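tl;dr need the bound structure. longer version: we got a ligand (4-O-methyl-alpha-D-glucopyranuronic acid) that a collaborator sent over and nobodys looked at where it sits. i said id run it. heres the input, straight from their email, havent touched it
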Amino acid sequence: MKKVLLLVISLNIVSCLLAEDGYRLWLRYDKVDNTILLQQYRSQINAVIINGSSPTIAVAKNELFAGLQALLDKKVFETKEIKSNTIVIQRKAAGIIDTRIVNYDDLGQEGFAIFTVKGNVKNVIVITANTDIGVLYGVFQFLRLLQTQQNITELNISESPKIKLRILNHWDNLNRSVERGYAGISIWNWHTLPGYIDQRYIDYARANASIGINGTVLTNVNANAQILTKTYLEKMAALANTFRPYGIKVYLTARFSAPVEIGGLKTADPLNEEVKDWWKRKADTIYQFIPDFGGFLVKANSEGQPGPQNYQRTHADGANMLADAVAPHGGIVMWRAFVYSNETPTDRFKQAYDEFKPLDGQFRKNVMVQVKNGPIDFQPREPFHPLFGAIPKTPIVMEFQITMEYLGQGTHLVYEAPLFKECLDADTYTKGKGSTVAKVVDGSLDNNLISGIAGVANIGNERNWTNHPFGQANWYAFGRLAWDHTLSSARIADEWIKQTFSNNKSFVNEVKGIMLASRQIMVNYMTPLGLHHIMGTGHHYGPAPWVSNAGRADWNPVYYHKADSAGIGFDRTVSGSNALSQYSPEVSAQWSNLNNCAEEYLLWFHHVPWKYKMKSGKTLWDELCYKYNAGVDSVRWMQKTWEKMKSLIDEERFKQTKMFLSIQEKDAAWWRNACLLYFQTFSRRPIPSNYEKADHSLEYYKALRFQFAPGNGNSF
Ligand code: GCV
């Protein structure tokens, strides 16, 4: 009896340990479940030859052995001799295999080649690169081939990243709260650093390296000067040391007023000699702690942050002063263009362009301007930011938001690759047809020497990193697109699903279908037809299109939708704010005429009469009702499809996703009901009777409060 009990207890413990808690992300390395392929892989891979011994090669070796042994469920040996069925890791001219067929010039500093050797030996696969980090990226790509069950018989792969700096931006505060974080508190435990290196830091580095991310800004752009003090630099250095073998550089956010706050100076004026000197000395100190420190990210004169304009200086003056401080060490400054002022009566859409366009050509060579994908703020759908292509002498860092501040946050299933791609593929026409945003960002349009892309991280200390199991897909997609923006959303989803859940064909196809549709579904139930910024004040969760009393005019939803008895939408044509004039004439022409403006952008650019005839033949009002209802119906379709997946994956993640989908369904209906009831007070038209009725009154929705919604402000 005792024995049976013990067995039951130990089986329970084992199953707890094996529970799919999501921690392993897309690096699960579970045994290949296709028996024929498993046999093939097993016969093709017996041993590994490792050339090199740097810390990066050491982690590549560990990853390869761990991955192979788990995926193939067999012992793989290290050897020195070339025999059949061996994998060889070697840098250019550093190993025993002739790699002259590889064009190393094409691989650059981070690319890799994976190829099958032709000759007497069978199944010898070489993973090679110019650098150790290239080798590590190659190892991750090889493991991805196995995890996604590809044929590895005749390999001939050659890849290099299109964008040089591929960076995560953490909006993590020193008290471990995360601004716009929906997955728990910060993973950086400042209290136990530098002495305690959490395994999570290492797994974070592995996950990032596996998708090619090579930089991380550790702290919030709403910055705290304390991070520049020695106490914190020691902690940052411990993280930098942990990440270094994985090719990940550390960056920090610089609070512009730091010379006053922690330096005891009377001013932070960027043209003041003492201030310049303070930053130079500060940079020298930082580089003593972190010799390969990447540089600073700065939010200045935006939403209350201090900046050069406090001293009547320009953004260029401020950025250049910091750039001069880090230049001797090879550092860069990423200066954010997210600036808008309540005092300026101009349409908020236009303000960043107005501010930065005249500064083109005035920045130091090591300054990059970081621009959000759209002109307002990470909305479900935005037109691309007019600064893309407009400042050709200044390299731009694209800023996407992986964390879903305005997209349902940590509880909605929204796959963001289509949103990222829509922006990257948009044509700016600044140098004729084909001048895509992607070409501006990767530097090829204007021959920039540096190029960069940043994603505001959705990572927290939740066991599964991102709260919603599908949040991981957005981290993954950001990294993959940063590496190669030509990859399709479908291909990335396919890879992610196979590595994260299963290679089962029907699971992959059904779930891919959900993921690819999810972004448009969310747009439909939140902000269809070009509506934007109508979320709840402060926390931005849920609908609040009625709000008109926020701290400043341009934080109010009514500022953005401008609904009245005549119609709805923001006129940004020549008869309105004329924001369209900031784009190339070809782009402006796409959107400036009400009658041929793409309907997904309609209310971004036009104030449209309620009775306006849409392409479907419906009036604008009826179309709005249709879109909101279609959004809700589609979430129900997502739920039904997910239900069919029950037997195909683990219970834990099946259940989690099911519960989140049920929250999403309720939220979608809430969005629809609240928005339609509110807009109806202007349209004075009936909601067609074939649609589901709202379950509450408008007053009820208006009275809802979310005092402790996560991610809002500095408190937990
Ligand atoms: C870090 C939006 C967010 C803020 C964020 C800001 C920014 O306004 O709501 O939380 O602050 O963007 O990107 O600087």
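gonna send this back to them w/ a short note. Residues 651-683 form the longest helix (33 residues).
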